[in-house]
Structure formats: structure tokens, C-alpha cells
Amino acid sequence: MLGSSMTNFALTIWAWEKTGTATALALTGLAFVLPNILVYPVAGALVDRWNRKLVMMLSDLAAGIGTIAILLLYSSDMLQIWHLYIIFTFMGLFQSFQFPAYSAAVSTMMDKEQYGRASGMLSLAQSASGIFAPVAAGVLIGVVGTSGILLFDIASFIIAIGSLLPVHIPQPVVSAEKQEKSSLLQDSLFGFKYILARKGLLGLQLAFFLINFTGSLIFPLLAPMILSQTNNNTVTLGTVNSAFGVGGVVGGLLLSAWGGPKKKVHGVLLGMTLSSLLGYTVMGLAGSPLFWALGAFIMMSFNPIINGSNQAIWQSKVPPEMQGRVFSARAFIALISQPIAMAITGPLADGFLLPGMMEGGSLAPIFGWLIGVGPGKGISLLYLMMGVISAVFGLSAYMFKEVRDVESLLPDHDAIDTSSTVVVEV
Question: What is the mean predicted confidence (pLDDT) over 364-368?
């Protein structure tokens, strides 16, 4: 995670200096996310058929190969922005196997009472890398250059695969008869049928669908917002990125020790509401690095609690032998809004918001008194608006009994006869 985060930081700076447009940055994210999401259903079906440990290793290997390709192109002074689109597409295809394989593996390695803490530890690892990566990349890019950072990333994949090799990951028992009567197409559709038959789980994922849409509108524009308002100050950008990581570490430590609220759905819905209202909106209103960092910290401190609480619900309700297929469908529903948002956010910012919030722009008389006018303020306006809208989404989910009482309405997978759910596959 540290190596990949450093590479993403370095390539973001490279792409901004190369193109100077928000659209280019958003499209690099779209190139990774779109194939990643579209392959999820098939990936989940294969995860339930294959060895989950091997699947995770192959996913890391593919990401390493993509990084090697970028290094070779960059070192030969041939790297172009369209190369990143192609390579990120390749990496995104294989990354779609990582989440369902990892999530299903955790369910077979520990008791369900520990699912929340396990999610907290994962968030802690993600957030710690988020703290150190921008700082390390900001320092090293002036010493070893982008090539040195890419080499570090390649080494990190080797270490990751080597660390996974000795770990024992139990495989859930699936009868040969059950495997033979299900085609790959049936297994790819199984997760959607499973979720559609359970309104509470579907409602949770629709909440994530909406929150991910608003988040995907603004996160690709973080670098343009800060760089354009600070005269391309990469130290400020790195500081704000590190603040995201610090917030995530605090939230991850809290969840690791606490395990989350007793009623996990509160961790999901209240977490979404507070993260959006106190995170997005503060960043939108901010006019200084201090308040950008404060908003980033608040936003990410809730993130482990939101995702960890949601993960614990799903791992408790879905039988382990079905989790590859169901979790892939779950990810597809929650994340399919991301490429839609990424496709429109760059043109929206470049063509409307940014010029609209310049002196004399069409939006300046309406919102200028609130956030000011000038370079990057159009993106600040988007952060502010998405914060309010996302908070409304989070609170609105409480209106539906199937969602707010999902934990009591649906039995845990170890409290029911899982053979009774086989009919869903037909």
C-alpha cells in the first residue's frame, strides 16, 4: 500500500504538470476504476472456485507488472498520459479480484466477533500508508526522482507476495456436485440475486452507491483544487494527503480497539452523515492548508468505522462459501457510480465550475461571499455542495426499516442452515 500510494502521488504530480487539466487526472482514475468494477461479478465467481490466497498473489503480481511498464516508459522518456490509461486499465482488471478474495479469506480465519476489529486493522494499514506516502514521495521525488519511487513500488509488491506465501488461508468446503451444476454465468449473477432477495443488504449498498457517487465527483479534483490555489505547492498537497492518513489511523485504531458500535448500522449511516457534513463541507469552505487538512482528517477518521461496520454486517450475514460472489456483486452495486462521476467531474470542473467561480464568472455573484473567488474555487464549491447532499443521503436511509434494522431482520449465516440458500443459485 505504501509503494502504490507513493506511485499514485508521484504520477498525479507528473500528470498535472504534463496536462494542467482536471479532466486528465479524472480520466486516469476512470481508466482504473471502470474495468475494475465491470469485472467484479466474474471475479467473484472465480474467487469462490479458486484458491483465495493464490488469487490475491496474482492480483499483486499484475499490479507489479503494470508498475514495471510505467517505469520502463518513464525511464526512456516515452511516457504519455494515454499510456497511463492503458496500464491502469490492465491493473484495474486484476485488482477486481483482490477485495472479494481478501474479504472472504478473513471470514474463514477468525470468529465473527472479531470482524470489526479486523476491518479496523486493515484501515489502519491503509491509513498509515496514506500518512507516509505523500511525505516520503515529496521528499524522495527530489532525490531519486519518479523512477526511484517506481522502483520502490516494485520492491513493495515483491515483499507483499513474499509475506503472503507462508500464511495459511482455509478454503470453505464446497461440494463437487454444487460446483458442477453452476455455470460461470450463473455464479456471476448469483450475488445479485442474493442481494436483491434481501432488501436490507440492498439498501445498504444503495446508500454506498449514492455516497460513492458524490465522493467520486470531488476526490479526483483534490489535487487541482489545492495546487491551483497554492501556486502548485506540492508540500501543501502532501500535507493534506497525510491528514487523510492521520484521520484514517485514528479511526482505524479506534475501531481495532472498540470493534465498532453494537448496532453496526449506526456506524455506517451516522458515519456517512458526520463524515460528509464535517469533512466535505469544511474542505469546501476552507481557504487555507490548515482547514483543508482539518476537513481531510475528520472525513477519514470516520471512514474505518463506516467501512468496518458495513463489512462486519456482510461477513456475519453471508456464508463464507458464497462471499466471493456476493461481495463482488456488493462491490459492483456500491462502486458502479464511480466511473459515472469520474467521467463527468473533469469536464464539469474545467468547463463550468472553475471559470464560473473566477472574478466575473457566472457563479461568483451567488457563492463568492461564502467561499471566495479565484483559481480552484469552483472545486471548493463542489466539495461544499456534495458534503450537504451526502449527509442527507446518510440520514435518509434511516427512513427504511429494512435498512435500519437489517441486523435483527436477517439471521447470521451460522444461525441458519446454509443449504437452504442453494435455491437462490438456480
Answer: 91
Phi-psi region of 217 (alpha: psi -120 to 50; beta: other; left: phi over 0): alpha
- Burial code (b: 16+ CB inside 10 Å, e: under 16) for 364-382 equals beebbeebebbbbbbbbbb
Residue pair 119/126 in contact (Cβ under 8 Å)? The answer is: no
Q: Which one has a higher pLDDT value, 203 or 416?
A: 203
Give the burial string for 293-318 (b: 16+ CB within 10 Å, else e).
bbbbbbbbbbbbbbbbbbbbbbbbbb
C-alpha distances out from residue 128 to 60, 148, 218, 246, Å: 19, 21, 22, 7
Grid cell at residue 33: 476504476
* Cell 446518510, residue located: 394
Question: Distances from the Cα of 408 to the Cαs of 108, 120, 213, 305, in angstroms?
Answer: 23, 23, 29, 20
Q: Mean pLDDT over residues 233-239, rounded?
A: 82
Contact present, 249 and 131 (Cβ < 8 Å) = yes
Would you list the domain boundaries of the chain?
A: 2-166+182-403
| Cα(239)–Cα(254) distance, integer angstroms | 22
- For 10-38, what is each residue's pLDDT tens digit? 887 787 777 777 677 677 777 777 887 88
Give per-residue burial for 131-151: e unless 16+ CB within 10 Å, then b: bbbbbbbbebbeeeebebbbb
pLDDT tens-digit profile of 154-185? Answer: 888 888 888 888 888 887 765 454 555 677 78
SS3 71: helix
Does pTM surpass 0.85? no
2-166+182-403 maps to which CATH number?
Answer: 1.20.1250.20
Residues with Cβ within 8 Å of 196's Cβ and at least 6 positions away in sequence, in order, are 202
Q: Please write the tens of the pLDDT for every residue from 269-283.
A: 999 999 999 999 999
Cβ neighbors of 184 (< 8 A, separation 6 or more) are: 42, 45, 46
